[in-house]
Amino acid sequence: MIRGKCWVASDYVMAYDIIIQQFWTSPIDAEENSKWVMAGVDEAFNKENGFKDHGYTFIVAAHNFAGGGKSIEHVIAGLMGAGIKAVFADSFARLQFRNAINYGLPFITCKDIAKGCQTGDELEFDPDTGIIKNLSQNNSFQSVPVAPFVAEVGREGGLMNFVRKKIAAGEEIK
Amino acid sequence: MGMTITEKIMAQNSGRDSVKPGELVWVDIHTVMTMDYLGKQCFSKFRSLGKTEVFDKDRVICVSDHLVPPPNQKFATMLNEWREVVREHDITHFYDLGRQGIAHQIMVEQGHVLPGKISIGTDSHANTYGAVGAVGNAIGVTDAAVAMATGKAWFRVPESVKFHIKGEWQPWIMGKDLSLHIMGMMHWNGHLIYKTLEFEGPAIESLDMAGRMTLCNMTVDLGAKNGIVAPDATTQAYLKDVAKGEWEMIASDSDANYEAIYEVDVTNLGPTISRPHKIDDVVEVEQLVGTKFNKAFVGTCTNGRLEDLAVLAKILKGKQIHRNVNMIVVPASQTVYLDALKAGYLQTLIEAGAAIDTPSCAACAGIHTGVAGDGDIVLSAGNRNMRGRMGSRNAEIYLTSPAVVAASVIKGEISDPRLVQI
Question: Which residues are within 8 A (CB) of A74 and not within 5 positions of it... i.e. 6 or more apart?
Answer without folding.
Answer: A19, A23, A24, A26, A28, A33
